[in-house]
Recover the amino acids of this structure.
């Protein structure tokens, strides 16, 4: 049976169950609007480790262990662990998960890691290559600032367009079959370069990729926005959301009434000083795990299009004056019984 629809979209032959999801965050995230929904709020940025980077690894490890417990599936029973983060060569994931002794796939989609991981995990299960797959995404404010922008000790002033990298990690356990929220398919994004060179303006850098993937999804399947209860982007923030709505409107797709953005949801910009909103691999992951996944289980949402977004930059590319390409991967999640 042909599973590919259009240029970028795959529809699975059977639903891939999301049997559990976990969220572990830092103190600032715990003080935000969703603070009471996370599985664990760590009081310190160091997470009782020796460095911010080691803390990020511990966030990833903790999220996996929590998700494993919630799914009632031992970590050792997962055929694959798929993980992504922002640290050089995915060291956050590698050192956090090196003791799991499971087949490991490290991915780099920047802040779109959760969407990319869910897409790959869903295809592995739908293709008959696995029965159980764990997806992990992590990030840390301090390590990201040090790597991509300025060390915290420098005390630089953050411009209004800047985003606050979420400290934390999220994990999701996928299985063949099951009831409740399930992956029904995915639309793999293309690299879209808007020419943005400002490392403090992630929303503008990623908005084009989000619009491109969402529009492709609708075209591939012949759907319109009304099919979904919510269309959820990763971390465009306030700046990126406005650009996204304008771009899609020009394409003939009006999504304002059902659009939500994880970067906007996770912080209160007026009281927390987060300016454009949240970002980082953990941003869409923890908001999905703590809020949207749980609300789907309660029946508030039955069909969502989850579109984590990423800025594909590195310290080297920024220092050499390159632009910041964006990427966005969409996954269809529907309640299944």
């Amino acid at each position: 049976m042909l599973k590919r629809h259009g240029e970028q979209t795959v529809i699975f032959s059977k639903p891939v169950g999301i049997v559990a999801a976990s969220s572990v965050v830092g103190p600032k995230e715990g003080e935000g609007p969703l603070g009471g929904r996370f599985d664990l709020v760590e009081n310190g940025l160091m997470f009782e480790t020796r460095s911010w980077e080691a803390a990020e690894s511990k966030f990833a490890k903790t999220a996996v262990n929590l998700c494993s417990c919630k799914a009632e599936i031992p970590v050792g029973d997962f055929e694959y662990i798929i993980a992504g983060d922002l640290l050089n060569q995915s060291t956050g994931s590698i050192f956090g998960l090196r003791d799991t002794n499971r087949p490991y796939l490290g991915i780099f989609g920047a802040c779109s890691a959760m969407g990319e991981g869910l897409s790959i995990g869903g295809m592995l299960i739908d293709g008959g290559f696995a029965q159980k797959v764990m997806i992990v995404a992590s990030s840390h404010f301090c390590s990201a600032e040090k790597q991509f922008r300025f060390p915290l000790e420098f005390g630089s002033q953050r411009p209004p367009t800047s985003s606050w990298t979420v400290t934390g990690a999220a994990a999701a356990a996928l299985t063949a079959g099951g009831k409740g929220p399930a992956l029904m398919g995915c639309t793999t994004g293309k690299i879209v370069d808007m020419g943005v060179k400002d490392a403090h303006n992630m929303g503008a850098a990623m908005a084009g990729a989000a619009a491109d993937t969402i529009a492709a999804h609708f075209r591939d399947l012949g759907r319109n926005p009304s099919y979904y209860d919510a269309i959820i982007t990763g971390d465009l923030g306030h700046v990126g959301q406005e650009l996204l709505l304008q771009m899609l409107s020009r394409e003939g797709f009006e999504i304002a009434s059902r659009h939500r953005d994880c970067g906007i949801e996770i912080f209160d910009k007026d009281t927390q000083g987060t300016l454009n909103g949240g970002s980082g691999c953990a941003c869409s992951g923890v908001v999905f795990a703590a809020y949207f996944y749980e609300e789907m289980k309660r029946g508030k949402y039955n069909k969502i299009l989850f579109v984590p977004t990423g800025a594909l930059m590195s310290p080297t590319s920024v220092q050499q004056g390159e632009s910041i390409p964006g990427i966005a991967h969409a996954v269809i999640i529907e309640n299944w019984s």
Notes: The longest helix spans residues 52-71. The chain has a mean pLDDT of 94. The CA atoms of residues 123 and 129 lie 9 Å apart. The chain has eleven helices and 16 strands.
